[in-house]
Amino acid sequence: MTRAKKGRPAIAADIIGWREIVSLPELGVFDMRAKIDTGARTSALHAEDQEVFDLNGQRWVRFRVPASRHHSDFRVEVPILDERDIKNTSGVPESRIVIRTLLHLGLHNWHVDVSLADRSNMGFDMILGRTAIRRHNVLVNAGRSFLAGKPAPATKH
Predict the structure, then answer these.
(1) What distance in Å separates the CA atoms of residue 148 and residue 26, rounded to the nearest whole number?
(2) Which DSSP letter does residue 151 get?
(3) How far apart are CA 56 and CA 46, in angstroms?
(4) How many CA atoms lie within 13 A of 93 on its CB side?
(5) Is 104 helix (H, G, I), strand (E, B) or coil?
(6) What are 9-67's pLDDT values in tens digits?
(7) What Cα–Cα distance (Å) separates residue 116 from each residue in 45, 82, 122, 137?
(8) What is the pTM for the complete model shown?
(9) How far is 32 from 13, CA to CA, in rounded Å?
(10) How far is CA 102 from CA 9, 126, 154, in A?
(11) Cβ neighbours of residue 135 under 8 Å, at least 6 residues apart?
């Protein structure tokens, strides 16, 4: 599919659905169902038992993503990128830890910023917000699901 703006050439884009299977290989997360949420600016990952610690002068966080019917329980330790006030689903700002990690979505691979949040009452352990997909030549078909296929591992990143 192509779309051209005035004075710009048309750009081919891949179509993804409103929900897709993604992997976050740097975190050890493979084949997780994610909701593609263009109404959310920031991506979010369900994280429990968050613990901030210092490693070689840098702030890190360890957390757990509990098992669901789609993936097993896993623990993660990763450097903290930032702490930001991010609006929750009710529109209330809350301070969240933000990490950066590699995302595999179909044949696409790129780094995304992800906030750690309590998504225990949500239908998906991860939402992929609009800043994560912006400038990556993907368009969202809000009426379809799982169009990108199973995530392909990156050959080089």
Answers:
(1) 20
(2) P
(3) 27
(4) 4
(5) strand
(6) 666 678 999 999 999 999 988 889 999 999 999 999 999 999 999 999 999 999 998 87
(7) 5, 11, 14, 26
(8) 0.85
(9) 23
(10) 29, 14, 9
(11) none
